[in-house]
Amino acid sequence: MPRLALYALLVCLLAVAAAVVSFVQGSWLGIVWILLAGVASNMAWYYVCRARTGRRTSSVTG
Q: CA-CA distance, 54 to 57, in Å (whole number)?
């Protein structure tokens, strides 16, 4: 798994944890954390797919 995908996954997990804490404390700021988690998970998925595609094309050409 690419390093950037791992960083994005870590940000996603931390954002979910922050959202849970925020909602438990009664703050609506958790919505922002949920949105950040969505963006981070999409970034992680993008980097994983990009790495897979890069490996597939390099094995075909080389």
A: 5
Nearest CA among 1, 3, 11 for reference residue 42: 11
Can you give the pLDDT at residue 60? 61
- Tell me the C-alpha distance between 34 and 43, whole Å: 14
User: Into how many domains does the chain fold?
Assistant: 1
Domain membership of residue 31 (yes or no) is yes
* Confidence grade of residue 61 (pLDDT, cut at 50, 70, 90): low
Selection from 1, 7, 16, 12 nearest residue 39 by Cα: 12
Asked if residue 60 is part of any domain, the answer here is: no
pTM: 0.82
Q: Which domain holds residue 16?
A: 3-54
Distance between CA atoms of residues 58 and 49, nearest Å:
14
